[in-house]
Write a structure and sequence with these properties.
The structure is a single chain. This protein has 212 residues and is α/β, with parallel strands linked by helices. It has a six-stranded mixed β-sheet with strand order 2-3-1-4-11-5. A five-stranded mixed β-sheet has the order 8-7-9-6-10. 33% of the residues are buried. The model has no long low-confidence stretch (mean pLDDT 95).
Length: 212
Amino acid sequence: MDEYISIALPKGRLGEKVYALLSSLGYGCPALLEQDRRLIFTDDENGVRYFWSKPSDVAIYVERAAADVGVVGRDILLEYEPDVYELLDLGFGKCRMCVAGLRGEKPDPGRTVRVATKFPHIASEYYASRSRDIDIIKLNGSIEIAPVLGMSDVIVDIVETGRTLRENGLEVFEEIVPVSARFVANKASFKFKNARIEEMLRRLSSALEEEK
């Protein structure tokens, strides 16, 4: 195979699920499942090259052409706005980007809202659309503790089941946007490897339709 497709997958359950799907569609790479220290895995027969990445880095690898295609959460696309083509909603990893805070304690609409978040861009855009002044507190860890400690009025974060919120006395106030995994492509790769990427996209689309 003279033309490889390089694929960036997010580490963890999402990436493993996506790989299982791609493998079933003819894009398998058995070496990927071996327990060793290699970083890049190539399968000559299927013409694919895989590597695992931190989920938030996948879009960077694709944007910078280190990967032709990849799988990334919509939250990452909205936060960092990478210059890539978003080709398909895979429907995996469904969750919501939400505003949450202490149960029954919505912020006073007349004052600046203190917002703790890992997603400052999304939070800023959301509140700007509502003409609300905010004070962003950028955190990287478990941000649910911020309103409990009185450091913030609300948080803006990904909510899947809501269990962590409930266990810490928080509740969802508003849903900003639904989130799921997206299949993305480098813009140059989409031009020069169009036939192969379009075929992969077609197979993915057909498989997801059959699952509905």
